[in-house]
Amino acid sequence: MSSDAHKYVDNAINAFTLIKRLSTDFERLKTVASEPTEFVWDREMIYATEEDLIGATMAISRLQSVYKLNTTHLAEGNLQGVIGFPMTANDCYELALILYKQEDPNISRQAAEWFEAALEKLNNEQNENTFTAIEVMTYIVKSYHRSNINLDIKAYAWAEKLLALKPNDRTDYVTNFYKYAVTRNNTNSTEVASWNKYSALCRGETDVPAASSSKLHCWYLRNIPFLKLAPIKMEEVHKDPNVFIFYDVLSDDEFQNIKTIAGPKLERARIVGDIYAEYRIGKSAWLYNNIDVVAKLRQRTADFTGLNISHAEPLQVLNYGIGGHYIWHYDAFDSGQFNKEDGNRIATVLFYMSDVSQGGATVFAQLNLTVTPKKGSAIFWNNLHPTGEIDKKTLHAACPVLYGSKWVSNIWIHEFGHELLQPCSAI
Ligand code: OGA
Ligand code: FE2
After folding, report:
1. CB within 6 Å of ligand 1 — which residues?
2. % pLDDT > 70, the chain
């Protein structure tokens, strides 16, 4: 893709409308074109699938909940002040319908708001559409009614409008709506708290007590021979567990090189057990030591962390597009899930290979810590207690990318080779 094209799809709304044009609109075109016409489409043409469209919709929904984005602004193509193309009534309607079909009370409010946007545009547009205002209004009532937060006032107000338009046509739904008391499942409060923490940290709403942050240090590492010439700036961002940021440990040339090599190998990232999960959306590839730039980077990692990398994993390269994220997890494995020859993941080194225009921070739930990706830097933390058990305070996540694309790579260092460092301290 050209860089202009990249810029275009860097905006979630542009990406959605593009995917929509390439999937549903194209499907419609095909049905029309199955009649003998002048139009011949290329059967080999790559077009987006229904699944891609659902993926793009869920990405927008995630971005809305994490970053509190206003539906009306988004419908105008305005993503936090970055202006893209306005959506049509049909775009908003299809987005709303996909959200609605998830039957998820957590996103019903968003569905309702997108139906409202569709209705607003429907009233102002000249285009012929395949749906009517009455249909949209019915969906609005149902969506507000289904929401897990009490939005019945809105549901009733829309039901009244609907009845005013069709006084003699009380559809079953509206009648039932008045007849039955609302029953809502109790939302799981731990889940809500965990989601609230995630979204607050992703928005940068951290409240680290001044007393604890003032004890942190920043210094230049020079004690290793290779660092004498070019000391590395190192910042301590947390104690217990130790979290450090190392600056300028990866050059532009190096990460360009890594991106080029990793590009064709990227596949949808999996989680433990080799499976796909909604809570991890991104692409990953493994690069091995036989690649010069990887070997150099691993050696540099050994130098600046002072750790033994002979049992470290290969370099994992990750690319997150808009909405790409990785919800709360530990990098270390539970006992029995790692091989005894290498031991568990004692430490994580995460290289930031791009700045991210908006979103995409790495956040730590228990540490109240938000780290914004800075191209060329690396974040380091210890995953284990000196006893070898997982340090539960290392629970962390990658926030959804709001604008742009995020590239990182990981080197996971394993226990083996560090026996002498135990049990006093892991670093
Ligand atoms: C991971 C991870 C954080 C990030 O890949 O395990 O936690 O910011 N990544 O990408
Ligand atoms: Fe992680």
Report:
1. 318, 326, 331, 350, 362, 396, 398, 408, 410
2. 80
